[in-house]
Each structure stands twice: as structure tokens, then as C-alpha cells.
Amino acid sequence: MTARVRSPKATIRDVAAHAGVGIATVSRALNDDPEIAPATRDRVLEACEALGFRRSSLARGLKVGATDNVGVAIMSRHAPVILNPYYAEVLGGIEEVLEDANKHLLLSSLKRRDDLLDLASEGRVDGLLVVGCDVAPEILARLRDVDLPVVLVDNAFDGIASVVVDHAGAGRQAARHLLEGGGTRFAFVTENLENPNFRARLEGFRSELLEAGASLESHAIAAGGDSWDGGAVAMRRVLAAMPAPPDAVFAANDPAAMSAAKALATHGLRVPDDVALVGVDDIHLAARHAPPLSTIRFDKRGLGATGARHLLDRLAGREVPRLSVIGTELVVRATSRGDRVAR
Fold this sequence. Notes:
Blueprint lengths: L11 H8 L3 H8 L7 H14 L5 H4 L8 E7 L9 H16 L3 E7 L4 H7 L5 E5 L5 H8 L5 E4 L7 E5 L1 H14 L5 E5 L5 H16 L9 E3 L6 H12 L6 E4 L2 H13 L9 E5 L3 H5 L5 E4 L2 H16 L7 E4 L2 E3 L12
Parallel strand pairs: 1-2, 1-3, 3-4, 4-5, 5-11, 6-7, 6-8, 8-9, 9-10
Antiparallel strand pairs: 10-12
Helix pairs in contact: 1-2, 1-3, 5-13, 8-9, 10-11
């Protein structure tokens, strides 16, 4: 007889490890997939019994979409996502589409990347939207094998339907604008350089400068950490490293740009008279900033809505594009000498 372990919080991951199979196999076994070998199904059921893992009736209804629940997982290791204006707009687009389809939105803000596999495999949702790029490739590879419709929003991975922003294009637009405004000494500031979307913005910015015969020196690139003053920390590092202050700064997002502006002011540098400044995202505060912030805008609500529509199509058995790209546009305001920019 198998000894029962008192573990009321056992997850499908625990069952998979105990049975020596993958998470996807556990999900299929619990859904009575006829292709699962009887011996494998027995091992999974024995593991459930040993760990006290209850087979949810939701899991049995997963393949026919019986729950009407759609999971929305936001991957963020840092500040609560509800305080992030970027995520608020993306979620607004998702919510609108799901409401129109009479689906229930189950929002999860996940800090542990492995939690994503649990959410995808436990049978609580009919489909899953994964928002954000802070997901390890090995986790996405395993998510791809889970028997659940999944769509990535603002991230891309082979074999999973994805909706992304042209982040490199945003960087190129910023570079062209700052070049046209007369910039000669360029800098890039961000909260972190681990974020692949921020790196794409940096690479687009740098490549456009190089094509124009300008340069972005390594000491003119800095990250200040994931906090509200990360842009200011990065800006101070750039000012300390460059022989002369930059006259054109591209920030990876609007919060970093607004924070960097404070550091520039502390050093006696005026925006835009001494330094032109451009951010990305066009959050609501950008237009209210003093002076109003030039930025690269993209349709954040449309990003979320597109992902939600693709997931509904997948739930209905319809084909969806492997990759959908949301374009960007330059919004010229007071921080980048808009009156001098060539049209």
C-alpha cells in the first residue's frame, strides 16, 4: 500500500515529479486522454493519491471549455502590477474583449516563473494569456507542451501564438528623431538590461545611430535598477562616465525618462535646452510631465485586445497568426525640441 503524504497544497508539478512524467502528461491523464498508456495513467493516479492531490472536475471539463474562465498571467518580479500604468492599459484591452465574449477573467500576478506551469495545468481555465517578457525560455518550452490554448502578449516564442510590439522599431524612431533634432552625444538609460524588450529598444536605437554615422558608446548606456528612481540612478551613472554630458537621451520607458529628467535637473542640465529626452509607452503621465515628455507610442489596449481575440479564436478551433506585430509612432512634445525637428 502506498503511504499517503499529508500535503494539501500539492500541485500538478508535485504529481508529475512523483510519477516521473511531465506536467503535460499529468494533465492528459487527468483528462482521460486515450493516447496515454494505462500504466502511465495508473502511475499518475497513484501519485495523486499519495500526495493528496484532488482531481478537479474543472480538469475533466478543460478540453470542452466548460469553465468559461480565461487566465491572464502577468509575469513581474517587481512592483505590484496593478500600480503599473502600462499593464493597466494592456489589461483594459483584454478585459473588454473577454467581457464581450462572456468569459471570466482570472488575473494572476506571478513572481515565481514555475507558477505559470501550475496555472496552465491545473484545469482552472480554458485558455491562458501570458503578459510580459519575464519568462525563461525553458518555461515557455514546457508551456508549449501543456494541453491548453496559450497566447503570449508582448513576448514571442516558437510554437506559441504571440502578439508583440516592434520594440526595435521604437528605438530606431527615437534615434531618427534625436538625430534630426541636432543630437551629437547620445545616451541610453533604463531600469534594467535583462528585459528583452528594453534590449530590443536599445539595439534598434544603436543600429539607427550607427547607420547615420553617429555612435553610442558603452559608457553612455546604463541601468539603474527596478525601482521608481531607476532612470535617475542610470542617468547619474551616465553623467559620471561621459567626458561631456549627453545632449540626446533615449530612455527605455516613460518612467525611466521622467526619473532621468530629475537627475539632469539636479546636475544643472535643462530639458530640452541642454538635453533632448525621449521615452517609450506614452503613459498618461507623459503628457502631464513638466515639460511634457516626447515618447514612442503604441496601442497598449490594442495589444491586449489582439491577444485576447487570438485566444478566443484558438478556443473556437480557428487558426491564428503565429506572430502579430503592433507598430509604434513618435509623439513629439516639449522634451525633444519639437519645434526644431525636421518634418
